[in-house]
Specification:
This protein is mainly alpha-helical. Helix content is 84%, strand content 0%. This is Stage V sporulation protein AE.
Length: 116
Amino acid sequence: MTFLWAFLVGGIICVVGQFLMDVVKLTPAHTMSSLVVAGAVLDGLGLYEPLVRFAGAGATVPITSFGNALVHGAMAEAKQHGLIGIVTGIFEVTSAGISAAIVFGFFMALIFRPKG
């Protein structure tokens, strides 16, 4: 049942993104930014963690999870270190994923010949 909920929640998030591009006519960059902001707002309201517990990877894989991670890290560090923790918390939580994307992207560029 967990897989079904993950599939449905992740699919709904993707349908919202496709709706924003097809019907609202947002660019892909605006759509991605909107979904990140939506994840951040949901985490700020305390609604994203219950969604993660309910849907698992269906809520942690889409881009909305990045907004969740930003706010979650900032709030956790702000409790410990005050105002400066807001800035350091954002980087602490997301740095591993961003660093991995840069490193793996670099190695793929070395291995494969880009077309363009």
